[in-house]
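The instructor's notes for this session suggest beginning with a concrete chain rather than abstract definitions. Hand out the sequence below and ask the class to guess, before any prediction is shown, which regions might be ordered.
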Amino acid sequence: MAHKIAEDECTACGTCIDECPVEAISPGDFYKIDPDVCIDCGTCADACPVGAIHPV
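After discussion, reveal the predicted structure:
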């Protein structure tokens, strides 16, 4: 199972991208997690200051 970033909640602050150990997160107007790379560690969700990252 991977995690997903809610587009309407993401503030593109960059906190999660620095925490991802497998570089599964890409920046943009809102950030995206590549489900094929994500190892479901939850580190990004724990780091997100607005709670925009959820398990799928």
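Then share the key points. The domain at 3-55 is CATH 3.30.70.20 (Alpha-Beta Plaits). The longest strand covers residues 3-5.
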